[in-house]
């Protein structure tokens, strides 16, 4: 593989547009992967993802030798500038396609297009070309920073320990990391009486991080979780998490815990 070949590969994916100046050639990366990794579930790390060639090459090589390698690729959201002659084409592509003008957005778009191409060219292949995107951030839990002068303010703030602006998905991701759960496992969501419940890794973890759990919803919510858990045959080690301040009152929280415990879901926690 050589640079011109890599440029042509990018143009083919991006409808003739050259959105990356010096991408790495797929053929070279595929050869490196083939020589260095020959087991399913091997994890390949690229800390300077750039155009995303490494992950694209893994898609292609997994298809070629029927191995399920995984990858972690890291790319800073470097801003593309219209005034920069070398970045002008990349910037224009992002604007035309409603993407933030950053390198990382182009990386994600390349992987979406590469995965689609591999699927279309190999309809019988059942391998995985999906990916999840995570951004580094502070904890979702409000830090305790009280001094003698600010103790009263901190106590008031801790009525809700979750930082404002954090989503249910943010909370679930942090919880998975803290519990040592692989971020690539299957996550399914369902709605029970308007409340979103997430089921992680076939029932090992259930979460409901909605901001309000009315007492009137407890019966439907618990029935939904119980029936779902039974259908998965997940066993007794399942863990359930809720937001402590989401419950309308202590009665709602007590009833929810009692119903779940009666049906074998005894590992209950709140944030």
From TrEMBL:
GO biological process: methylation
Source domain of life: Bacteria
Boundaries of every DNA methylase N-4/N-6 domain copy: 14-64
Pfam families associated with the record: N6_N4_Mtase
Catalytic activity entry: a 2'-deoxyadenosine in DNA + S-adenosyl-L-methionine = an N(6)-methyl-2'-deoxyadenosine in DNA + S-adenosyl-L-homocysteine + H(+)
Ranges that cross the membrane: none
Keywords, comma-separated and alphabetical: Methyltransferase, S-adenosyl-L-methionine, Transferase
Protein family according to the UniProt entry: Belongs to the N(4)/N(6)-methyltransferase family.
The name this protein goes by in its record: site-specific DNA-methyltransferase (adenine-specific)
Gene Ontology molecular function, alphabetical: DNA binding; N-methyltransferase activity; site-specific DNA-methyltransferase (adenine-specific) activity
Organism: Klebsiella michiganensis
Listed EC numbers: 2.1.1.72
């Amino acid at each position: 593989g050589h640079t011109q070949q890599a440029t042509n590969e990018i143009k083919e994916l991006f409808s003739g547009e050259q959105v990356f100046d010096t991408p790495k050639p797929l053929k070279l990366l595929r050869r490196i992967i083939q020589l260095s990794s020959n087991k399913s579930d091997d994890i390949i790390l690229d800390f300077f993802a750039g155009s995303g060639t490494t992950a694209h090459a893994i898609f292609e090589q997994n298809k070629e030798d029927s191995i399920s390698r995984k990858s972690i690729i890291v790319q800073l959201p470097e801003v593309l500038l219209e005034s920069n002659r070398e970045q002008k084409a990349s910037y224009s592509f992002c604007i035309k396609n409603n993407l933030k003008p950053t390198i990382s957005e182009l990386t994600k778009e390349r992987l979406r297009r590469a995965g689609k191409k591999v699927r279309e060219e190999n309809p019988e292949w059942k391998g995985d070309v999906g990916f999840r995107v995570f951004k580094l951030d502070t904890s979702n839990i409000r830090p305790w920073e009280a001094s003698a002068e600010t103790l009263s303010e901190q106590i008031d703030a801790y009525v809700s320990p979750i930082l404002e602006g954090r989503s249910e998905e943010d909370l679930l991701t942090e919880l998975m990391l803290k519990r040592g759960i692989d971020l690539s496992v299957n996550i399914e969501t369902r709605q029970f009486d308007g409340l979103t419940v997430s089921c992680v890794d076939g029932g090992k973890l259930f979460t409901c991080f909605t901001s309000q759990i009315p007492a009137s919803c407890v019966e439907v919510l618990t029935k939904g979780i119980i029936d779902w858990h039974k259908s998965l045959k997940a066993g007794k080690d399942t863990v359930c998490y809720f937001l402590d301040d989401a419950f309308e009152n202590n009665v709602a929280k007590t009833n929810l815990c009692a119903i779940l415990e009666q049906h074998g879901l005894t590992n209950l926690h709140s944030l």
